[in-house]
Design a protein that fits this description.
Elements (H helix, E strand, L loop, with lengths): L6 H4 L5 H8 L3 H9 L1 E5 L2 E5 L6 E3 L2 E3 L2 H15 L4 H15 L13 H10 L12 H19 L2 E4 L2 E5 L9 E2 L10 E2 L6 H9 L4 H8 L3 H10 L1
Antiparallel strand pairs: 1-2, 3-4, 5-6, 7-8
Length: 229
């Protein structure tokens, strides 16, 4: 875990709103993930703890890279079909099962970590004759693993922990989030240019072909970013 204890990975970098935009979830959703929330039940008030790592900057809660990356993995779990009501205890199970503080960011998630999660969230589907359908369960497990791995392959690991990732919504190997590059702001993989710098010129009305030439990017990549940003 030493690599993630470096200041560049744990320092406050993003507001919650910025982090929500990067991982492509609503702002209220991200706040629930980071802060947790209170809710009422028939047996009284209950608290739901936060799921991702946050940090303080001048008394304000902000999100470090480790928290942003944890949120990105949670998005992967949601997209694999797991509802949040099961993701929350599943994350706790994963952390306890692997015994690692940043279990969501561990490269082990691709091996035994996925198995821990599936064991927790997987249903024992029944065959038509009432018996447990082992083949069905096995197929569900493969689908589950495949859905998770589609996200995990966009993550770069160093010393066993996530140190950067390429958000899937931008396309394959187009934009990278790395706290060591442009203070963790989304940047083009090939050139390291900040996405915001390119888009600000597009929005000001400059010709895309001229912007592409200035930043050594393709016009197609800029148009694509403009559509999904």
């Amino acid at each position: 875990m030493a690599v993630l204890e470096r200041d560049v990975f744990t320092a406050p970098l993003y507001t919650k709103a910025e982090a929500a935009r990067i991982v492509d979830v609503p702002g209220n959703t991200f706040r629930n993930w980071s802060d947790g929330y209170w809710y009422m039940t028939t047996s009284g008030e209950r608290a739901t703890p936060g799921l991702i790592t946050v940090a303080l900057e001048n008394g304000r809660v902000k999100v470090p890279f480790v928290g942003l990356a944890e949120a990105y993995v949670i998005v992967a779990l949601k997209d694999s079909g797991i509802p949040m009501v099961r993701i929350r205890p599943a994350v706790t199970t994963l952390r306890q099962g692997m015994g690692i503080r940043y279990a969501l960011l561990s490269e082990r998630l691709k091996t035994d970590g996925v198995e821990v999660l599936y064991e927790f969230v997987g249903d024992e589907s029944e065959a038509s004759d009432g018996r447990v359908g082992l083949a069905v369960v096995r197929n569900r497990q493969l689908v589950f693993r495949e859905a998770i791995e589609q996200y995990l392959k966009t993550i770069t690991y160093e010393d066993g922990f996530a140190t950067s990732f390429m958000p899937r919504r931008f396309g394959e190997k187009v934009v990278r989030i790395d706290p060591r590059v442009n203070a963790g702001q989304p940047s083009f993989v090939r050139t390291g240019v900040r996405v915001s710098d390119v888009l600000s010129r597009v929005r000001s009305g400059e010709a895309i072909d001229e912007i592409a030439d200035d930043f050594d990017l393709s016009s197609e990549s800029i148009r694509h970013i403009q559509e999904v940003a």
